[in-house]
Design brief:
Elements: H1 3-13, H2 15-18, H3 24-32, H4 39-47, H5 55-62, H6 67-73, H7 77-80, H8 83-102, H9 104-107, H10 110-123, H11 132-138, H12 146-171, H13 176-185, H14 192-199, H15 203-215, H16 227-243, H17 246-251, H18 253-272
Helix pairs in contact: 1-16, 1-18, 3-8, 4-8, 5-6, 10-12, 10-18, 11-12, 12-16, 13-15
Length: 284
C-alpha cells in the first residue's frame, strides 16, 4: 500500500478526533473546570499536553492561528486552570460526546474495542523527534475505556500527522495564513469566512495574503487555485502522507484496512448525529 492510501485512511478517521473541537460537551467540561468559554478553552485543551507553554509555542505549533489571537488567550488560560486539569476535562468531555453521538451500546461493542486496539498499535509506530504536539500527547497516560483509547490513539496519529504537515508547509514556502487561504481554495476545508474568523485574521491580512498568492501564480485573480497552486497543494499533501506513513507501515496493510472498515460506521454515525455544525466546511 502506498503512503497516499494510508493518508486517505488517516483522513477518513480524523472526524472521530476533530469532533472534540466542536463538541458542546467538551466545552462544558472545560468551562466547568475553570476555563473561559471559546478559543481560550480550545487553545488550552489542545496544548495542555505540552505543559504550561506560552503563546509563542502554541502559535508556532498550531501554525495557522494569528499570534495576537493566541496571545489574548494564553498564558492567562494557565491562571484559570492547570494543564493536567485541562487534559482531564477534555477527556471527560470526549467521553460525554462519544456517548451522545455514538451511544453506549456501540461504545461497548467488540468493534470499538478492536478499533481501539488497532489504532493503539498504529500509534506505537509514531516517532517524536521534530513533532512537539505529538510528543506532548504521547507523554500522557493511556485511558482505560476502549472508546477513550480509540480517541487518544487517533489524537496521537492526528498530531503526529499535523506536525509533519507543518514541516511540509514550511518546505513549500507557505506561511500559516497562506496555508489557510490555499486550503480553503481547494474547496475541501473550512469555508473561508469561518477560517478567517476562527483563526483571527483581519480582512486586510487575508486580502494581502491572497494578493501575494496571486502574484506567486498559486491563486487565480477571480479566486480558486491555479494549476500551479493545485500542484503545490498536492505536493504538500504527498509530503505529509509520506512523513505520516510510519505508524501505518507499523500496523500493516491488513490492520490499516481493518481499522478503516471499523471506523467508517462510527464516523458516519457521529456525522448523522450532528458532530459538526452546518456551514463550517466546504461541500467539496
Amino acid at each position: 500500500m502506498e503512503p497516499r492510501d494510508y493518508g486517505r485512511i488517516a483522513r477518513s478517521l480524523e472526524p472521530l478526533h476533530a469532533l472534540g473541537y466542536f463538541s458542546p460537551d467538551v466545552e462544558e467540561a472545560l468551562v466547568g473546570a475553570g476555563l473561559r468559554k471559546g478559543r481560550t478553552a480550545y487553545f488550552a485543551s489542545r496544548s495542555a499536553a505540552m505543559g504550561r507553554v506560552g503563546a509563542g509555542v502554541i502559535a508556532a505549533t498550531f501554525y495557522n492561528f494569528h499570534p495576537a489571537l493566541v496571545a489574548k488567550c494564553v498564558p492567562t488560560a494557565w491562571d484559570q486552570i492547570a494543564p493536567e486539569d485541562a487534559v482531564a476535562a477534555r477527556y471527560r468531555g470526549i467521553d460525554a460526546s462519544y456517548h451522545r453521538l455514538l451511544g453506549a451500546e456501540v461504545l461497548a461493542s467488540p468493534e470499538v474495542a478492536e478499533a481501539a486496539e488497532l489504532a493503539r498499535q498504529a500509534s506505537e509506530g509514531c516517532t517524536a523527534p521534530g513533532r512537539p504536539l505529538y510528543a506532548g500527547h504521547a507523554d500522557l497516560a493511556w485511558p482505560t475505556e476502549p472508546h477513550l483509547v480509540l480517541f487518544h490513539a487517533l489524537t496521537l496519529l492526528r498530531e503526529h500527522r499535523g506536525d509533519g504537515h507543518v514541516a511540509a508547509l514550511l518546505a513549500a514556502g507557505l506561511s500559516g495564513l497562506e496555508a489557510l487561504v490555499t486550503h480553503c481554495a481547494t474547496g475541501k476545508g473550512f469555508v473561508p469566512v469561518v477560517a478567517q474568523f476562527t483563526r483571527g485574521w483581519s480582512d486586510d491580512e487575508w486580502a494581502a495574503a491572497t494578493g501575494a498568492l496571486v502574484e506567486r501564480g498559486l491563486l487565480a485573480p477571480e479566486g480558486g487555485l491555479t494549476d500551479a497552486g493545485r500542484d503545490l497543494r498536492r505536493e504538500v499533501e504527498a509530503a505529509t502522507d509520506q512523513m505520516a506513513a510510519e505508524p501505518w507501515v507499523h500496523l500493516g496493510d491488513e490492520g490499516a484496512l481493518r481499522l478503516a472498515e471499523l471506523g467508517q460506521p462510527l464516523v458516519a454515525r457521529a456525522l448523522e448525529n450532528g458532530a459538526f455544525p452546518d456551514g463550517v466546511f466546504s461541500a467539496g
